[in-house]
Amino acid sequence: MTDHDNHDHDHEGSDLSPMEQRVRALETVLTEKGYIDPAALDLLIDTYKNKIGPRNGARVVARAWSDPEFRRWLLLDATAAIASLGFGGRQGEHMIAVENTVEVHNLVVCTLCSCYPWPILGLPPTWYKSAPYRSRAVKDPRGVLKDFGVDLPESTGIRVWDSTAEVRYLVVPRRPAGSELLEEAALANLVTRDSMIGTGLAQTPSGAS
Amino acid sequence: MTYQSRADLGGRPDSRAVLPEAEGELFHAPWEPRVLALTLAMGATGLWNIDMSRSARETLENYSELSYYEIWLAALQKLLQASGATSADEISSGRMSRPAIKVARVLSAEAVAGLLAAGAPVSRVPGRPARFTVGQAVRTRAVAPPHHTRLPGYTRGKQGTIERVHGAHVFADSNAQGQGEQPQWLYTVVFDAADLGSPAPPGAAPTRVSIDAWESYLSPA
């Protein structure tokens, strides 16, 4: 294929990894055939890198912690309650919120692939898509939680939600002690991504005893 | 006819630790976000649906050896060839050698925000009443069908309880085979982990596990 050396396709760079070259070649031919617009690709990437992520979900949780009416709505009709804060759409069309309590701790997994509530949590982390998480979450959830440094009391039961259809789950973590006086924006800072999947707990406010 | 999903990992033996990651750490190579975006943009052409995508991924022979976005890329290439959109030669050379086929739409940058905001709801008007009610005991289908399905192996042939009725949803099994949406009632079915063979440790409160299951996966217990 020496004729390739003479034209200026941008996938010819020798410093690119084989995967990088493979993906560039595919993007080039799909663009040439008119199936895709590279500007749309740039925008999709920017959206999921910079705009749609777990801070959205943190706002939902912080609102539920500080507004009992919103909490009720979220637990009754999560899709609508979340939409009222401006979040929804792709991979969040059918939302269910599940609340952690003293009695039960919720954990979300997709054993079959990587189903995840994109509008409020963004793209799933690598571990969520990994074989160890997907195989062990339904069999040994306490062991998985220990991998995240979470050791629940024996009296707390675990509920695992396997996202096998198009319903997506948001865990509402327990509001941490010492956060009683915090406003919504400060509360949102305590809500980690992992706490909304169920592999973590909300952070304790600094200075709280 | 055989069909093997290599993605059905729930309950499989795997002693490896789960490795937590920082919140902003989404990609590990520059090509990974391109594969994500290529997959989303090609999905918008309407040449295939999301269930066909999942089926293409889970049937990759070397699924277990590939990283997540390698799986996405391999499945995208498979779908491009199967749909006739792109030949194997075009994929490897990166150069067009056959005319393009007609697609329903090409995603423009201007249309991205609208596409993501609209999503693709799968709820449909049910054609008949739900067969099961909340609290009812059900048993899941014991045998895997010879095609894409969303009943995980670890829950096959098990007794559980209907916890929630979601309404009628597009049936993944038929949609993945290009046989249309054929909507069915969808339920949350909850199991005692002990009934799945994975009881909570002695002394600990019980673990319960749920799936979302289409009606034809279930029969009265």
Question: Could you name the key traits of this structure?
Answer:
heterodimer; A: 209 residues; alpha/beta; Nitrile Hydratase, Chain A; two-stranded parallel sheet; 11 helices; 42% helix; 11% strand; B: 221 residues; alpha+beta; Cyclin A, domain 1; SH3 type barrels; 6-stranded antiparallel sheet; globular
Overall shape of chain A: globular
Helices and strands of chain B, in order, run as HHHHHEEEHEEE
Give me the CATH fold name of the largest domain in chain B.
Answer: SH3 type barrels
Assign a percent range to the helix content of chain B: 25-40%
Which segments of chain A are poorly predicted (pLDDT under 50) over 5 or more consecutive residues? 1-9
Low-confidence stretches of chain B: none
- Tell me about the largest β-sheet of chain B: 6 strands, antiparallel
Separation, N- and C-terminal Cα atoms of chain B: 29 Å
| β-sheet strand percentage of chain B | 15-25%
CATH second-level architecture of the largest domain in chain A: Alpha-Beta Complex
With strands numbered from the N-terminus, the spatial order across the biggest sheet of chain A is 1-4
Largest interface: A-B, 90 and 100 residues
Gyration radius of chain B (Cα, Å) is: 20 Å
* Largest sheet features of chain A: 2 strands, parallel
- Counting copies of identical and different chains, the oligomeric state is heterodimer
Rg of Cα set of chain A? 21 Å
